[in-house]
Every structure is written in structure tokens, then in C-alpha cells.
Amino acid sequence: MKNSLAALLVGFIFALGLGISGMTQPQKVVRFLDIFGNWDPSLMFVMAGAIVVHLVTYRLIRKRSSPLISAHWHVPTKKEITPALVVGSLLFGVGWGLAGFCPGPAMTSLASFELKPFVFVLSMLMGMLLFRLVDKKIQFKK
Amino acid sequence: MNPDWLNALWGGIIIGISVSLMLLLSGRVTGISGIINGALVPRKGDAAWRVFFVLGLFFGGIILKLFKPDVFSGSLPTGMGTTIVATVSFIAAGAVAVLLFRSLGVLP
Fold this sequence. Notes:
The complex is a heterodimer.
Chain A: H1 2-21, H2 26-33, H3 42-62, H4 83-99, H5 103-109, H6 115-138
Chain B: H1 4-26, H2 32-40, H3 48-67, H4 80-104
Helix pairs in contact in B: 2-3
């Protein structure tokens, strides 16, 4: 229950950050990727702000023996670069560039009640389900 | 009104604070696609927080819609230019992937 409330709070603040930064506007994302055209560097500043803050807080927080609510850490431990990671990242980037949405801003943009985020989210969920079927057959090294 | 880059920086800082909260409270990394993916076929005791996180994103969106509706005003540029950029990116991504896999020894 506490974890759910924490997640609700984090999601809420995250969404406000996305909105303020301009990242709920797909054309800003697309223009960031359009390096040789009408380039919009905003996304770089969003990343810089988020990364600098988290770089500091991550180190401080991980000095604790456990998080405040959960009994254990759930941070990923894998460090190797696998084909699954590379292919996944490439596909993610292609989808991101095509739609101008990644999962977070898409979920937040559902609140605009416009058609595009709904289509994106629906397609994303179908893609995730489809992957579960395909994954059993392909057996990519993870 | 702030210039775009300053808004972007502030927004990024807020995002950094939110993911730090997630780490401090629940000990988790805020990977959104992973959170959603895990909610799709939930494991027992590992679903509720995922749904609540997405609800938080949505409620945040509602607040933005109410008080700063212009953040959703951006429409996607469509037309020949976008299609060409997307197609070229896709092909380039594929080429890099093949190159990489060959060097990793995954492809012959």
C-alpha cells in the first residue's frame, strides 16, 4: 500500500516535470532528433537536469542499507551489453522518433483526451503483448 | 515566460527529483516501459504499485490539462520530411545493428 502511494506520488511529480519541460509535445522530441533540420535542443536540457540531480541523489541514497518503504533494493544488476539490449534500444529509438512519444509522456498525454496518445498507448501495449509471444520463439540472449 | 531551454532544465530537475524519490522510498529505478510491461501480465504483489504509478502520470496530466493546457498543444509534424527522416533513421539503425552484431560475433 505504501509502495503504491509512493508510486502514485512519483508518477504525479514526474508528469509535472514532463509538462513543464515541454516533453509532452511530440514535435519538440521529433525536432530534437532532427539534428540537421530545425533542431530543438530542449530535450538535452531535460536530460541534463534530470541526470545531474539523480547522479548526486543516487549515490547518497544508495549509501543506505535499504529504501524507506521496501525491505530491499530493486535496482537492476545486469551490466553487460547484450543483443537484446541493443536491438531493443534501436527499436525504441525508431518508435520514439516516429511518434514523438515515449511511454511516460504518452501516459501523461492521455489526459489531453486527444486521439494520438491513445493510439500510441494502445499500439505500445499490443507491442508488449506481441513480444511476449515472439520472445518464447526467438530466445534472444538477454 | 521562461525561454524553452530553462523550462526544459527545470522540468528535468523535477523529473530527477521524482525518480530520486522512487529510489529512496521503494528502492526502484523509474523505467516507465518496464513498469507498464510488468503491469500487463502482473505477478502477485507486484502489480498495484505499477498501476498507481501510471495513474500518477495520468493525474499529473490532468493537472497540466487544467492549469497549463498549452503543454499538449504540440501537434506532430507530418508530411514528406518526417517520413524521409523516419525511413533514413530506420535504415541507419538497422545498418548499425548488423555491424554491431557482426563485431559481437552474433552474426556470421
